[in-house]
Amino acid sequence: NAGVTQTPKFQVLKTGQSMTLQCAQDMNHNSMYWYRQDPGMGLRLIYYSASEGTTDKGEVPNGYNVSRLNKREFSLRLESAAPSQTSVYFCASSITGTGGRQPQHFGDGTRLSIL
Amino acid sequence: QKEVEQNSGPLSVPEGAIASLNCTYSDRGSQSFFWYRQYSGKSPELIMSIYSNGDKEDGRFTAQLNKASQYVSLLIRDSQPSDSATYLCASNQAGTALIFGKGTTLSVSS
Predict the structure, then answer these.
(1) pLDDT reported for residue B27
(2) What b-and-e string marks burial along A59-98, b requiring 16 or more CB atoms within 10 Å of the CB?
(3) Least packed by Cβ within 10 Å: which of A28, A54, A112, B13?
């Protein structure tokens, strides 16, 4: 049982390059999320998808785009990477979305460095 | 802005002691609360959830919720060096995704 799978695990980009982070879950969850985690800042929500076909902005959406490709997959795209986007990115999923009692389950993360 | 607040620590306790981790939240509409453990370099792992006022016990862990005071806590009994990690408190508020605190770092010395 893989749970939430993120690819790649590590990536180094140059400023201005573009990149898509991939996330897939095999738990038949309806909701999926992208977070970034920086030292001292905790987990900050970038975008989320409460259900297939919907996406909403989180706390820090600038510089990112997302696609909910199907129920299993939710990708995060950096169109023009900036050093401020150096971070650890986590994808998560939950059975239901907002306000529910269902916790989120996290992938292993992608460690992204922008030079 | 809806917030979840935690003392960043570090909280240092000797092996075998009780570790007490605290969390406050700003939105009275919050309905569900979760504690995650995150080891250095790893992803957050769910350890407890609580929805009603009072205590909920699971092994060495006890979560406590007081909605009137907007306060959530996690007690770890018989703390072990393997409990050394960052503990994240999160609340599930109507109309939003989980809101996370910045985490409290726990260090258990042997």
Answers:
(1) 86
(2) ebeeebebebeebbbbbbebeebeeebbbbbbbbbbeebb
(3) A28
Arithmetic mean of pLDDT over chain A: 93
To the nearest whole number, what is the mean pLDDT of chain B?
Answer: 93
Tell me if B92 and A48 make a contact (CB, 8 A cut-off).
no
Residues of A with CB under 8 A from a CB of B: 31, 33, 40-43, 45, 48, 58, 90, 97-101, 103-109
Q: What φ, ψ does residue A65 adopt, rounded to 5°?
A: -135, 155
d(CA A105, CA A92): 5
Residues in chain A with CB shorter than 8 Å from the CB of B100 are 42-43
